[in-house]
Amino acid sequence: xxxxxxxxxxxxxxxxxxxxxxxxxxxxxxxxxxxxxxxxxxxxxxxxxxxxxxxxxxxxxxxxxxxxxxxxxxxxxxxxxxxxxxxxxxxxxxxxxxxxxxxxxxxxxxxxxxxxxxxxxxxxxxx
Length: 127
Hints:
Protein name: (apollo) hypothetical protein
Organism: Parnassius apollo
Shape: elongated
Mean pLDDT: 86
Distance between the termini: 72 Å
Number of domains: 2
Low-confidence stretches: none
Order of helices and strands: HHHHEEHHH
Structural class: mainly alpha
Strand order of the largest sheet: 1-2
Radius of gyration: 25 Å
Helix content: 40-55%
Number of strands: 2
Number of helices: 7
Strand content: under 5%
Largest sheet: 2 strands, antiparallel
């Protein structure tokens, strides 16, 4: 208190410093999809992620949400057939899932299109 009242302008400087500190942007929380990308790109282990997340829960989602986000990256389970020697996915289910994921990823771009442009979107695949 003594410091603030030592000069006539000191209180104003303190008030300005406090108000500017309140304006510091708070880091926003990663979405599970963004966190999954970070997890994969960073080559994290489950233990490393939990250690990182434990220190900053307000930014990083828990590991179980990453697992759910990863499951969303695959086509429906009923379109997948796994045996001891092979792994098969129905082509139409894979194409549908890929198109859906692209539309989700490009949502902001799609919203800027006119109805006519949306009706004439074409997805071209090459194998």
